[in-house]
Amino acid sequence: MTQGASFDPEMRAGDADRERLVEQLREHHAAGRLTLDEFEERMGQAYAAKTYGELRTLTRDLPVDLAQLNFEQAQQRTAQSRPVEVRRGPGGMQINIDNQAIQDRINQQLARHQERQRRHMERHQERWEAHAARRRGRGSWASFSSWLSLSVLLTTIWLISNVAGGGSWGDFWPAWPIGIMGAVMLARGINRRG
């Protein structure tokens, strides 16, 4: 592997990287470049390697640095599949930032949040409608009971005043407030239903 700006020997290697390198070592052993002992020793080191730098040392003395070829091919495939922003972190360590993956993750979280909010609003709307229906039902009964109570009270006052006044049964004046309040209550009931 070359010491170019895109290579970081401290980058962690994966199982697939180790397997590819062991396969390349087998090819070198089959070609006679490595003895059986050298092959087995390098194979053990390959499986124990944690970074690309450690893998690179295992093929450095071979005619073709196959680990570098595979690393460059993997980089090209990654670069072709999605744009990666390369930045330098603390100590000059290379950081590859996959902006598309970050944006995909943000979009997924935003979609989940919007779905949760939509469900919450639906539940809230259902509760509000149920509460409003209960209030409408109670409101009609409350209006009627208030009207009835006022009617009884005013009629009782009219009766007491007529009995105490010597029985001169004059005009039934409670009809006016009872009638006005009844008309208002009726109009409100019609508006609620409409």
Please, could you describe this protein's structure?
This protein has a two-stranded antiparallel sheet. It is 70% helix and 4% strand. It contains 6 helices and 2 strands, in the order ααααββαα. The longest helix has 66 residues, at 99-164. It is mostly helical and 194 residues long. The chain starts with 14 loop residues before the first helix and ends with a helix. The protein has helices at residues 15-30, 36-48, 52-57, 66-81, 99-164, 175-193; strands at 85-88, 94-97.
Describe this structure in a few short sentences:
By secondary structure, the protein is mainly alpha-helical. The chain has helices at residues 15-30, 36-48, 52-57, 66-81, 99-164, 175-193, and strands at 85-88, 94-97.
Tell me the number of strands.
2
The SSE string, one letter per element, is HHHHEEHH
Spatial strand order of the main sheet: 1-2
- Report Rg: 44 Å
Structural class, by secondary structure, is mainly alpha
Measure the end-to-end span: 80 Å
The number of helices is 6
* Residues in β-strands, percent: under 5%
Instruction: Specify the biggest β-sheet.
Output: 2 strands, antiparallel
Average pLDDT taken over every residue? 78
Cα shape: rod-shaped
